[in-house]
Amino acid sequence: MSELTKDQLLDLVNSKQVAPGNARVRQLTQRIVSDLFKAIDELDVTPDEFWAAAGWLERLGKSGQIGLITAGLGFDRLLDIRSDEADEKAGRAAGTPRAIEGPLFVAGAPLSQGEVRVDEGEPKGEVLVMEGQVLDVDGRPVAGALLDVWHANEQGGYSHFFPGMKPFELRRRIATDAQGRYRFRSYLPPGYAIPPDSPTSELFAALGRHGNRPAHIHFLLAAPGIRTLTTQINIPGDTYIDDDFAFATRDGLIVTLEPNTAAAGYESLGVTTPFTRVRFNFVVQKALNESETAPEARMGRIAA
Ligand code: MBD
Ligand code: FE
Known about the structure:
By secondary structure, the chain is of the alpha/beta class. It has helices at 6-15, 23-42, 47-63, 66-72, 75-89, 199-207, 298-303; strands at 111-113, 115-117, 127-136, 146-150, 171-175, 181-187, 192-193, 212-213, 216-222, 229-234, 258-261, 275-279, 282-284. Residues 68, 71, 100, 102-104, 192, 213, 246, 248 line the site of 3-methylcatechol (MBD).
């Protein structure tokens, strides 16, 4: 058995077993290894190419950028398309569309009731107030829903990932009031670009691709009895709105800006001069089981 053909080797790799292990992990590993063996053979991958790829994966893991690569190669959107398909089949495609979480969520942002200033101190862009209601699919307000909001700063950086930012800068949680209302003040963020001189930018350069996302704001919305919604809104007018490196732009999530909205009624958010308003209602589905109500984002869900 010391001499092996490629097929014999693959069969051995896929069949070795001294304990039950995990059947699903075995199934997935077998499939992925088989597909890679095939790709290496059919594309005549050289040892130098193979080890360059392995070295890149090593650096990618160390850089903490795996979630940028999954987004940039379409996997995050693929999972959403598959979830949408499953909803369609189950006759429960309704409400605000989901949009990818992205790799930059941080749990535990400061919590406020009803409204909050998401930015701190001086606005670093056009003053924005976004407001609306959380409604269920029957149009009933969802009181006490928890809305996580996070977005990039004026340089396209997210706190906890971008140097020089305060913890939870531009990250807040808002509990909706009795009418299901929320509102927050911040500033209109610019788009996002993948970090230069990184494993991610290295691959994108080799692919001849850009690594830009159009301006957007992320949301994670959870409430008892409600199916947790992860989504984003896009700010209209961005060059990359239809060319997002993460393929996340969706109809129904491109908001309308209302510039020059009068400040009256917005004093509690420190607004004294005309500002840009966005009105947006989140429409959420009823949960079919406990796990759909989980307030955790993707990494929290798998840890829970
Ligand atoms: C982002 O800001 C983002 O939202 C995604 C999906 C990927 C990279 C950066
Ligand atoms: Fe983002």
